[in-house]
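[09:14] KT: can someone run the structure on this one? pasting the chain below
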Amino acid sequence: MSTKPQTARRIDWLPILLLLPVGVVLVLILIWPIVQGISLSFFNTRILNYSQGKFIGIANYNFLLQDENFWNSLRVTAIYGALSMSLTYLLGLGFALLLNRNFILRGFLRTIFILPWAIPEVVAVLIFMWMLDPQFGVLNYLMVKAGFIDRPLAWLTQSSLAMPALVMLTAWQQFPLAMLILLAGLQTIPREQYEAAMVDGAGPISRFFHVTLPGLRPVNVILILLLILNSFRRVTMIYAMTRGGPARSTETLSILTYNTAFEYQKIGYAAAVGTALLIILLIFSLIYFRAIIRSRSAA
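[09:31] RB: done, structure tokens below
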């Protein structure tokens, strides 16, 4: 019985060579900073004596678990994420349902509603700081004239009002993203389902709960997780508006990491907080990618 000699399998180096520059760039600007940040969390170091850091093992993590500021920031992040996600989703859903109908100037309104998403976060903060100003703010003026309040409110200097103001700003700036995603989801729902529901005598509310929401389920999962991820990693908007105050009422984990590193000069502990935030984001990212795979398989 003769056997044919097995030829060695040739390796196609062209794809590897084409991907090599991208891989090197990713390692330099993504992987290496993450590794550096995690390694810094095991040192007691400051900006001024960065090269003289002392290895302290997991002491930063032990302190993190006992730090009231960390647990407060985690609670603030959860509240901010839940409120901003809910308001953003409701606004996006409302405008998506409106723009899904056929009427005059629908294309023009779509363009107008997308504008808040195109505005830079710092510019959006300046706009809202003017609107919320206790003396000259248009929001206080309208609320006083309408009789909702007796005197202007100091939105950004009161702990009970700073978070609602931040949530309003976030929802205003982010709802176009939710609107576009939900509008795309609405347009994938077959018209026949609505016609069958109307034949069965279902009204608008019944059609919304039994046809629209089930049809948006795959989109909803992805959108909600995406909004939560954005709230966890948001820095510029919160820092420009409140800097985490007043009295740490808006200090999310991202702001705590920034303040600890650059205001309190505790680079090692800030790296530990950032590593904890990274783990949380990785968990939500895994859930996000799993949701995407499920939605694709369901489609």
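[09:33] KT: thanks! DSSP finds 13 helices and two strands in the chain.
[09:34] RB: yep, looked fine to me
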